[in-house]
Amino acid sequence: MSLFTTTSGWNEEEHSIFADSVRRFFEAEMAPHMERWNRDGICDREFWRKAGEAGIMGGSVPEAYGGSGGGYGFDSVVLYEQARCSDSAWGFGIHSIVIHYILTYGSDDQKQRWLPKLVSGESVAALAMSEPSGGSDLQSIRTTALQEGNQYRIKGSKIFITNGMTADLIIVAVKTDRQEGAKGISLVVVETGETDGFARGKKLDKLGLRGNDTAELFFDDAKVPLTNLLGDDEGQGFYQMMNQLSWERLIIAISALGSMDYALAETVDYVRQRKAFGKRIMDFQNTRFKLAEAKTKCELLRSFINDCIQRLERGELDPATASMAKYWGSQTQNEVINECLQLHGGFGYMTECPISRLYADARVQMIYGGTNEIMKELIARSIDA
């Protein structure tokens, strides 16, 4: 299977060549370690460096900052192939989001300082928005960053932070003006190895995505240079987050498709071999109909995603359409993998069966990046505008 459709307006020969290279890299360097990553709850730091050496993480980054000078399509390929490999431990999705924040809003000095290390895998990135008191409601964040001389003094905490245990570079959503709502939010970059007052809590124990390190972060008067503000002025953070959420939500849809393709392939292989009542499970009409439904859902999502990537490359992916991709992709992912697990019978419920892990991993897709209920509200607003 492939991310591309035959009519992908954004797919060029170099994307297909890149996809083949990424697939081979994951087969050699990712697949042999996934079981251990899921057991240990963390992806090897060495893998990040190997991915950097292979040019996996710089496809959308200009050559001046260590990348290959391409667009979102290259990151899309990586995200799909990772999910198609059934991995959920490597936190490249968030890493890519941070890269695009810096590309879009960072000064040239910030880009020169941070992007080459993110591309090479020397640095791992995280994005800290959610707090214990709220997730999707970004306007209500309580973490503050107040000026003190030539520094910000950050106080507060963040939770559910992907790559939280390993991140060297964290974009933190803070209130720089406590009297304002959305207009008081700014984004400040915290370099964890150089920041006194920054601490990581324990690695959080989750239902799924068990190989991906997720943590709570604490800022106890953490001091960060004023030059680490992302953007020209304070108060731009809410706009910056809203503008980048389209890519974050499309990432969720892309990973949903890769996971669905993997689940369907595994299930087809299983029902061809497994027998019941003297015949293959594949030969039962119910099985064939369920697989037909799953395949149709995969192809519909594939076409929609390709259209969204093409819009994104042109700078035309609107928030409502990205919300549709996230909502429909994650919802369909859960539906398809649920049916695939059912066709595996009792074996599908065993944790050593890949479909069991996919089932647990899929559930959070309807929650993070904005819950699907929030997605529906955003879509409805675009209809009623």
Q: Mind describing the biggest β-sheet?
A: 4 strands, antiparallel
Shape call = globular
Sketch the topology as an H/E string, one letter per element. Answer: HHHHHHEEEEEEEHEEHHHH
> Mean of residue pLDDT?
96
What's the alpha carbon Rg, rounded to whole Å?
Answer: 21 Å
End-to-end Cα distance: 39 Å
Q: How many helices in DSSP terms?
A: 11
Q: Would you mind describing this structure in some detail?
A:
The structure is a single chain. The protein has 385 residues and is an alpha+beta fold. Helices cover 48% and strands 15% of the residues. It has eleven helices and nine strands. Strands 2-3-7-6 form a four-stranded antiparallel sheet, with no helix packed on it. Helix 1 runs parallel beside helix 4 (72-84), helix 4 (72-84) packs parallel to helix 7 and helix 5 runs antiparallel to helix 6. The protein is globular, with a radius of gyration of 21 Å. The two termini are 39 Å apart. The model has no long low-confidence stretch (mean pLDDT 96).
Descriptive keywords:
385 residues, 4-stranded antiparallel β-sheet, 3-stranded mixed β-sheet, alpha+beta, 9 strands
Task: Please specify the SSE layout and strand pairing.
Layout: H1 13-29, H2 34-40, H3 45-53, H4 72-84, H5 92-105, H6 108-120, E1 125-128, E2 144-148, E3 151-162, E4 169-175, E5 185-191, E6 198-203, E7 214-225, H7 237-273, E8 275-276, E9 279-280, H8 285-313, H9 319-344, H10 354-362, H11 372-383
Parallel strand pairs: 1-4
Antiparallel strand pairs: 2-3, 3-7, 4-5, 6-7, 8-9
